[in-house]
What we know:
The chain is mainly alpha-helical. It has six helices and no strands. The protein has helices at residues 4-28, 37-46, 48-68, 73-79, 83-95, 101-119.
Amino acid sequence: MLTKLNWVLLIIGVMLSAGGAILLKVGAENITYSTPVLNIAAQLITNWKLVLGVTFYAVPVLIWIYLLKSVDVSHLQPLFASIYVVTPLLAKWFLGEDLNPVRWLGIGIIIMGIVIFARG
Length: 120
């Protein structure tokens, strides 16, 4: 069962995961892959956007583990699908990515699925 705390944690996990994807995208654009492997590794670990993006991905894993203690995975997993709504919206707002009508339709279908599932 999802308590108020569980809902808050779920939302935080989704937002962090989506934000992590945006940070990883921006950070990846600054990496020069034509350099030796050690130089690439140094770029990866010193790029604050990548480090923060990985952290934003790691925290939802901890939240997920906590939530699995009290919520069935068959109930929790579909709710985390909201990541597939939030991430494209953040990509549009922060990266200027295009969301064509087909993508908007997909986002709408995902939202409807989450709402139907959450009521069931």
